[in-house]
Amino acid sequence: xxxxxxxxxxxxxxxxxxxxxxxxxxxxxxxxxxxxxxxxxxxxxxxxxxxxxxxxxxxxxxxxxxxxxxxxxxxxxxxxxxxxxxxxxxxxxxxxxxxxxxxxxxxxxxxxxxxxxxxxxxxxxxxxxxxxxxxxxxxxxxxxxxxxxxxxxxxxxxxxxxxxxxxxxxxxxxxxxxxxxxxxxxxxxxxxxxxxxxxxxxxxxxxxxxxxxxxxxxxxxxxxxxxxxxxxxxxxxxxxxxxxxxxxxxxxxxxxxxxxxxxxxxxxxxxxxxxxxxxxxxxxxxxxxxxxxxxxxxxxxxxxxxxxxxxxxxxxxxxxxxxxxxxxxxxxxxxxxxxxxxxxxxxxxxxxxxxxxxxxxxxxxxxxxxxxxxxxxxxxxxxxxxxxxxxxxxxxxxxxxxxxxxxxxxxxxxxxxxxxxxxxxxxxxxxxxxxxxxxxxxxxxxxxxxxxxxxxxxxxxxxxxxxxxxxxxxxxxxx
Length: 479
Description:
Blueprint: H1 2-26, H2 34-37, H3 49-60, H4 64-72, H5 78-104, H6 110-118, H7 120-152, H8 159-175, H9 182-206, H10 226-233, H11 242-251, H12 260-286, H13 289-313, H14 315-348, H15 355-372, H16 377-406, H17 414-433, H18 442-466, H19 473-478
């Protein structure tokens, strides 16, 4: 219990203190934002702060901080450390910088920002990588709610039926102006997501469950090593590259740059609080990591969420579980396809104010998603998790180059270079070791991952030492 309380304190202090450091480094001002400068009634629409915050929270969260935290809890309470330190020092920085740099470039996607700061090759590589990740994400968040709905409805209403229903909703949410469906439904579901986590916290504390204290011991029942697997398993809630694709959506709607810390950094740390609650509740409810791991294997993530909710909260918990596990992933899936549409619009140059152009880009995306729903969920989730962290790594290097180009104080770029280096080591080591990767032993994967990340950091340091403060003077003035 003490560890959980201290974790909450660290997250609050991180928002107040470190969040201000990040904000001071970026230097938000009173310039006109894209919401007003490019207002089109579809994607660029000014939204009030409370809607911006809740839309951003649902964009990045969904069931990510629930499913990922539950699976991460199988490693034991060491996951608490990754959630709190990862979100304050990496995830919050990542989301804030991605959102605000996009805002400075008229709501550009992470793919376009990669082109601006890392070059032409990076732009096209990120365009392809981002679209693949977004379609994969949207597909994942079709299959998981459809599977649960199949269990809760009569025979004819099977998984295929619910997949069709959800995809139809995705068509509407992807095509219509952001304030018509997303702007109206997301705040409601955002409140439900927060309420659901709050009740689980109450059920864990007052239900007589024992919350384990933080330990560095690896308690995964199958012996899966903490490095790098825990850092990929828990993406949403600590740091997630998917957020780099979602923050530009809200960057198109934000009224003032000075609201960025509340919207981007604040939503990320709220997601971390939710992840922390579910990680603690998962281990506490099943008594040990072995019981939790067995429950996941037998019932899947959705089934475990339903068991925890009904076990702690009774019928009310069952209703919340259904809403949470059905509505929350859908609210990440629709914005995933929406983001993919906007990246395709950047590539093709099609004006998105015209609905026929939006339809022309949306239908093929959802068609691919429909095909991918036939694949095994666990396979999709593993590739999604690795792609997530790889995209986070790239986004942090983009932010590092941005700071080098726009700030005379060169050392401010360490704010993003350090977590970028860490995530580089995580991503490469994971794909070298994982079953869906090269399946190398840790004796080979660990040194390669660490040396590659160290090499990039050394290259960064050399660039830092040689950088002439006047070299990017014109670039800073334009920005």
